[in-house]
Predict the 3D structure of the following.
Amino acid sequence: MNAPEGNKHNHLSCFHCGLDVPSGSQYFTTIDGQPRQMCCPGCQAVAQVIADGGLENYYKHRTNEASSPEALSVTEQLKAEFELYNHASVQKHFVSELADGSKQATLVIEGITCAACVWLLEHHISSLEGVQLASVNLTNHRARVQWDDEQIKLSDIFLAMHSIGYQGHPYHPDKEEQLLEQETKRAMRRLGIAGVFTMQIMMLAVALYTGANGSLESNYENFIRWASLVLATPVVFYAARPFFQAAYRDLRTRHLTMDLPVSIAIGGAYTASIWATITASGEVYYDSVSMFTFFLLIGRFLEMKARHRTGKAGNALLNLLPASAILCTPDGEQIVAANELQQGDRILVKPGHTIPADGDIVQGSSSIDESALTGEYLPLTKREGDSVVGGTINVENPIHLTVTQVGASSQLSSIVRLLERAHEEKPKVARLADKVSGYFVSAVLIIAATVGLYWWQVDPGHAFWVTLSVLVVTCPCALSLATPTALTAATGTLRQHGLLITRGHVLESLAKATHIVFDKTGTLTEGNLSLQNTQTLAELTEQQCLEIAAALEAHSEHPIARAFHRASHATSIVPAEQLTNHVGQGLEGYINGQRFFIGKPQFASQYCDTPLDFNHAPDDQCQWLLLASETEPLAWFGLSDPARKQAAQVVQQLKRMGLEVQMLTGDSSAAVGHIAHQLKIDKVISGVSPAEKLQHIQQLQDDGAQLIMVGDGINDIPVLAGAQTSIAMGSATDLAKTNADAVLISGELMRLPQALKLARRTRANIRQNLSWALFYNLIALPLAAAGMIAPWMAAIGMSISSLVVVGNALRLTKLGRTDQVE
Amino acid sequence: MSIIYLLIPIAIILASIAIWGFFWSVNSGQLDDLESPAHSILYDDDEDLIPDEAKIHKPAHTPTDKPQ
């Protein structure tokens, strides 16, 4: 493959995943006859598979860039892991056998970003021999796969997905997931009923309106009214049911929301229309009732869709635990399904595998990657007798465990319980529209009663109809549309700019925020170690030292080793010979017959003339590793987790917007102070557990702070759930994303100040809308009270006032010039 | 005009049939994915079916010069 000349340009982005291509990168894939630059061997391999499969159209049609695949060097290990899925005991939980002997399974797929991914996956998987059907759902990221077990194994299907950059997991539907599905279907059925019958009723209403001057004979008019009644009944009783239920709940909790006036309007107008139909007098309002219901249902449906969008991985927590475990019995090792493990079982966890349950190490020592739980990227060293947590990853050596906790009593489950508690204690955000509606409802009811009383004394025959027209005219159509339209417009705009909003209150609480709290690792920083600094101590050049280090670290999957893999751009690293891993200390190995050490200074320099320790390290801003030969130290390597590029600028902007910026982290190392200094964050709380984090933000909220929490790891989930407004990073675990109020899809922190500005503009817009709606009602009310408004006038007035509200809200579909941040 | 005594009930019955059909499609999972079908018609995976002389643009590469 020949490289074009432009590869020295800075800030080239990877053709596959869109990340910056490191300078001097040599990864290319030919797509559509053009060599395209890739950022890493992972992207290169994936792009190559896509190109070889003739699926290059994917690049033409996608609307989002692919997620960057993890390095593909682990295929052997991965293969072994995927092969576990072929065991009958593991398969029995998610695979069903069809009548013709083929098998079918539903899988959850990570890494789907847009419709082109669906196309790519479907084409790639169906082209495998033995696969009979592959259909992928973009909304919930699930794939239904049907295959012939004699021609292809399930592990091959997982591998095929992996080769184009997606991660598959078996799908176990949980209860909540099924409820969500039912909710969606019910909402759709309601929308269908309201839509179809509203159209019919409107048709009949045209006849009634045009015949209002007396040209329609009364027997026809009555018939049309009865027909409308038949059509409107399911709309009121089935489609509008959620409004009535919510209003009933509001009444019981004495907390008025928009649902009450909506219910009064729908219920009142419907009842009055029935009365008018039976007595063949007065006016009917079936058209207004059903149209109003339909409009509101559309708004609710869109809001619900946005809310469900992030909660799609379903068994997000289970995905952290592996599907199978290796059980050590007196008869030898056997593979069992992980959820069949019992307390006291002895299990073997191989390096690279996820630990299936909480346990104590009884044999072996290794380093354990707890990043999924704690957010810390550096593995901890664990020896015999130490306890390990299910869901964490064994990095270096095989270990034997006795299982101590399974299921609900495991640590992972306890985090979930913390999460549930946090949800319950989450402060309710008083929504502007709800506050207004509280006053509005009381005002309308009082006025209607007064008007009714007045007319009862003046002209009892008119009293009922005038009172009703007051209720209908003040029907809070524009009022109840004021907030949802503005929110929908702003939510759509933010989504295009990389911030996905999943709960209704977010925009309002963003606008009100006074404090913003960031997690450190993975949020303000990139979340992985990279080589920052190299200082040579002997005659070897920087590049030579780097090559030696890379050769020593070639086989390791330790985050430190990965930093070296990335830093040495050589396409193929020749691993050192006789590699020995000293857990928690470092590595040694032979290159060209010479013995080298890399690791902690004391370990690496043990055979040198002068042993070194950390006090000799150049500074304390990074974590320093020493490379040494048998006789002398060769080089210092400084590793650290760098702050995200725009982080400093973002913090500065947020401060300028009047927010207090804080950093809350479980990390207690020197790096915390360094990052805080670099980003100019004054208030830092470090070394805290998830429970303490939650306590801290609850304290702040009790003191009246309007808080935004930005985080990513599993350990942040309780805080995310407990914070008034929470934003998860796009790279966060699914569980974190599901529990956050918003997701920063692109991971670009710059979107935060933008979003805050748009949120403030949205708040202004909602206020304008509410004022307009109240103004309209103020004009219409006296006219209705005077008995001067016919139903068709009310209908037109209602439509126009609604259109004004919608038009105003549409202004939010563009980020204004002031919102753009350079 | 008395035809409306027949036509309106027919309209109501037709609307009910439409609703029944809609319910059936929702319940059988046809509307589970509202996003990807909208995109899928745009994918030009019929490239191989178009005769070469009928193509407006010549293909950038033929299958023979695929990357190694």
